[in-house]
Design goal:
This protein is α+β, with helices and mostly antiparallel strands and 247 residues long. It contains 4 helices and 10 strands, in the order βααββββαβαββββ.
Length: 247
């Protein structure tokens, strides 16, 4: 059993924005692929959890990028489990190009019951040897709640069939696409490169849900964002730092 998993791939045209940089949601797709492949190799993947009437749900994610990731570059994602915090399984990602670290990420995952939609402590799912890995580099431990300090309504989105993933929920990468979109809208069709972000996934988006999006962005690039259902239930919150791109 290997406690580290690597995926490598060229950054393709369809993954890039108008500046030839890897889109945030395309990066999240790669992180999700790496995590899913590795969980399967560790015998805690979708099939194993389905037999227990559970699914893995991404609860929190934090990413730092040291530089833009460019069209044609070969991006290597190295991922590994990094213990349990409270009830969350913590997973890390080391992002490298030509051996150089260009970014990193940490994530909190929860097993959730498919029968009552309630979370289960990750310690009840993960084997002890995964929870007790010694001397692993841990990115962004202690990710916490985010303040709901983003009052400015920007736009709305409807969860469509193409946004739904294998768990039959709004895919986590779609949230990041919405965040990038609404920050750009605040710049009057401008563009941003998100260099640091934490996203907290709070409630499942289901087909047909209408999500009201809020965002705030200052001149230094500090931003916050949130999405809520029509009844006021928060679906996600995010905060971080963006570089405002000028043509």
């Amino acid at each position: 059993m290997t406690y580290q998993h690597t995926i490598t791939g060229i950054i393709r045209h369809h993954e890039c924005d108008m500046h030839g940089e890897l889109k945030l949601h395309a990066l999240l797709d790669r992180l999700q692929d790496a995590a899913a492949e590795h969980a399967a190799k560790l015998n805690v993947g979708m099939d194993e959890l389905a037999s227990l009437q559970l699914i893995w749900v991404l609860s929190r994610l934090q990413i730092t990028l040291h530089r833009p990731l460019l069209l044609g570059e070969e991006l290597t994602v190295i991922t590994y489990p990094s213990g349990v915090e409270r009830i969350f399984a913590h997973r890390c990602y080391d992002l490298r190009i030509n051996g150089e670290r260009v970014g990193c990420a940490g994530s909190f995952w929860l097993p959730v019951s498919t029968t009552n939609n309630r979370p289960v402590n990750a310690k009840k799912v993960l084997p002890p040897e995964i929870m007790e890995l010694p001397d692993v580099e841990k990115f962004f431990p202690g990710m916490d709640k985010l303040p709901d300090d983003c009052p400015e309504f920007c736009a709305s989105r409807t969860v469509n069939a193409g946004d739904i993933d294998l768990n039959r929920h709004l895919n986590n990468a779609v949230y990041s696409r919405w965040i990038t979109d609404i920050l750009g809208e605040k710049l009057c069709a401008g563009a941003v490169r998100i260099s640091d972000i934490q996203i907290n996934f709070l409630s499942s988006g289901m087909p047909g849900d209408k999500i009201r999006l809020r965002a705030a962005l200052n001149e230094e690039g500090k931003f916050s964002a949130a999405g809520e259902k029509s009844d006021g239930t928060l679906v996600f919150q995010a905060a971080g730092k963006a570089v405002i791109l000028r043509d």
